[in-house]
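Predict the 3D structure for this chain.
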Amino acid sequence: MGGGASAVELYHLRQQSKKSAKLPNQSLTDYVATEASGKADYLGGFAVTAGIGIEPYLKAFEEAGDDYSAIMLKALADRLAEAFAERMHERVRKEFWGYAADERIDNDALIAEEYRGIRPAPGYPACPEHTEKVKLWKLLDAEANTGIQLTESMAMYPASSVSGWYFSHPDAKYFTVRGIQDDQAEEYRRKKDWDEATAGRWLNPIR
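Done. Predicted structure below.
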């Protein structure tokens, strides 16, 4: 994905849990056309925040013993970041990619995610390995463009931030990857050029 100096190769894990014969073990790669298909396809990325500049206010509330206001400010920033992510996804569907330009859904359908496409976040169930977030940051030049930093543990700072990938495939749905077995873990370790300790740090929580 990407172009020129910004090109990166993304890795997504696949479910390995036992299922009935009619249910496949899913990976997010299933929602992108293969090179062999000859089809042009796209994967998007985003990072948004609503938490820049709230720290002095949080500190003032906490020093004053006003835990309620501190909690409410954090909650407001979180909700605004989520709303920002939702709005940007809507614009992708209707304007930037335009594959659902005529989309008309009410608020209940919006909450139920009854629209085409998903926006899974690195570190969450469908793509639970956090370090792929570094590639997202490279593609977007996210820190320079948004001010959002990645910590050593791959958390976002400010905390009231949301990031992820855009998939437009009409069958794309959210799912959970867990129970990673030795064969996939070893292949993934080799692809990432990790030593055993690094692989254990990032993969053991989902094995």
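The two ends are 27 Å apart (CA to CA).
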